[in-house]
């Protein structure tokens, strides 16, 4: 089995690390559908996000090519485009919508996972569009589905189809934004209809909106749509940070920490699993620099993980308030990968966090763990 080589925890990102990741990515086989959320929290979804993050570090065409290979598969599997049995399902709207069902038992509902798949297409489009020297080059891996022979035409196709999924399902039917752009599921959705969208799923939708904004900003082609997407992201983040979504506390070491729940209305004890997905979303917003998520806010999350959730060596609380439960709230001996982003803001704990699941000079088969480690390593090296 191909694995990714892990270099030293300190210093610059190495060519060996990047080449090892590209070799690993080339060996991966994309999921054939989204059943069980294969393309969201599942392996193919996390691997696609990892490719995008590594490309932000390296700007290596080989990495982008593998992300394109995966995004071709994403688009090919969309419900309205794919032949049965992968697609052509009538979902809860009564239509064959441009979605990716995570189950096919009627009534087929849709949740935040839709944001992740749209986000993959939009992210790849954005990364291509920011690499202008590739625009007129022929895509190295070919064009097996007829989505565009050049990098620019492929990016354009991804962006058009991502916008289409937004306008013909997520914004048309799935989300109710009538309360100041705050995300609620529409009343008719059999999945949590009429209820606030949980924070981790807001991060999935924000992943899509954020990358759509980035792509349209480069093209300068639709300022009204860009403003609409950005307004939804800003409302989501403000809801969490300043409008009742979280509370700030002082921990036992005198540091400020956040506490929050699974969904608006709950202000404590988010479970570790969903908390990791929450943090990954806030990290993406911070990395973009466009949504006023600050280093101070990220450090407050980092204090929470280091001071509150870390109970001892390889002993991490199942909830963000330091308590434990069962299921998603059970304690863990590993660090869920979303929390790795936080090591940038508590560099005193960087090596202790990374060494739980990675070994200097070792290897890993976890694309998300590796990509987030490498991101933090690169950030700390640039700051040194």
In the sheet with the most strands, the strands line up as: 1-8
Task: Detail the poorly predicted runs.
Answer: none
Reported for the largest beta sheet, the result is: 2 strands, antiparallel
Indicate the structural class.
mainly alpha
Helix content: 40-55%
Estimate the global geometry from the Cα principal axes: globular
> Strand portion, in percent?
5-15%
Say how many strands there are: 8
- Termini Cα gap: 35 Å
Task: Characterise the protein shown here.
The protein is mainly α. Helix content is 47%, strand content 6%. The protein contains eleven helices and eight strands. It has helices spanning 15-27, 43-58, 61-76, 113-129, 151-174, 199-219, 223-241, 272-288, 295-309, 350-354, 367-383, and strands at 4-5, 175-176, 184-185, 246-250, 256-260, 310-312, 315-316, 363-364. A hairpin with a 2-residue loop joins strand 6 and strand 7. It is globular. It starts with a strand and ends with a helix.
Name some characteristics of this structure.
6% strand; 384 residues; two-stranded antiparallel ribbon; mainly alpha; globular
Topology summary:
Layout: E1 4-5, H1 15-27, H2 43-58, H3 61-76, H4 113-129, H5 151-174, E2 175-176, E3 184-185, H6 199-219, H7 223-241, E4 246-250, E5 256-260, H8 272-288, H9 295-309, E6 310-312, E7 315-316, H10 350-354, E8 363-364, H11 367-383
Antiparallel strand pairs: 1-8, 2-3, 4-5, 6-7
Helix pairs in contact: 2-3, 2-4, 2-11, 3-4, 4-5, 4-6, 6-7, 6-8
């Amino acid at each position: 089995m191909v694995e990714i080589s892990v270099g030293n925890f300190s210093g610059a990102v190495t060519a060996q690390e990047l080449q090892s990741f590209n070799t690993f990515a080339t060996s991966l086989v994309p999921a054939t559908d989204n059943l069980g959320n294969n393309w969201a929290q599942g392996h193919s979804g996390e691997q696609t996000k990892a490719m995008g993050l590594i490309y932000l570090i390296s700007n290596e065409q080989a990495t982008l090519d593998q992300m394109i290979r995966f995004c071709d598969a994403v688009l090919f599997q969309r419900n309205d485009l794919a032949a049965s049995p992968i697609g052509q399902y009538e979902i809860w709207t009564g239509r064959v919508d441009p979605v990716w069902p995570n189950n096919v038992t009627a009534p087929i509902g849709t949740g935040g996972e839709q944001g992740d798949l749209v986000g993959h297409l939009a992210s790849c489009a954005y990364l291509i569009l920011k690499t202008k020297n590739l625009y007129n080059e022929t895509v190295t891996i070919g064009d097996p589905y007829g989505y565009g022979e050049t990098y620019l035409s492929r990016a354009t196709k991804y962006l058009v189809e991502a916008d289409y999924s937004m306008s013909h399902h997520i914004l048309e039917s799935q989300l109710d934004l009538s309360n100041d752009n705050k995300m609620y599921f529409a009343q008719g959705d059999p999945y949590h209809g009429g209820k606030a969208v949980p924070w981790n799923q807001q991060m999935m939708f924000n992943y899509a909106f954020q990358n759509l904004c980035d792509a349209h900003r480069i093209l300068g082609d639709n300022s009204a749509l860009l403003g609409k997407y950005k307004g939804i992201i800003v409302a989501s983040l403000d809801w969490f940070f300043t409008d009742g979504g979280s509370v700030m506390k002082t921990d036992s070491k005198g540091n400020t920490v956040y506490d929050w729940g699974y969904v608006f209305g709950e202000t404590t004890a988010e479970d570790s699993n969903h908390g990791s997905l929450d943090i990954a979303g806030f990290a993406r917003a911070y990395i973009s620099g466009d949504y006023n998520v600050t280093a101070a806010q990220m450090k407050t999350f980092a204090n929470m993980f280091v001071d509150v959730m870390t109970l001892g060596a390889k002993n991490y609380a199942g909830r963000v308030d330091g308590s434990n439960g069962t299921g998603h709230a059970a304690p863990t001996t590993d660090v869920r990968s979303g929390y790795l982003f936080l090591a940038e803001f508590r560099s005193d704990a960087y090596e202790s966090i990374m060494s739980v699941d990675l070994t200097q000079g070792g290897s890993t088969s976890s694309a998300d763990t590796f990509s987030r480690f490498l991101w933090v390593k690169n950030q700390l090296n640039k700051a040194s």
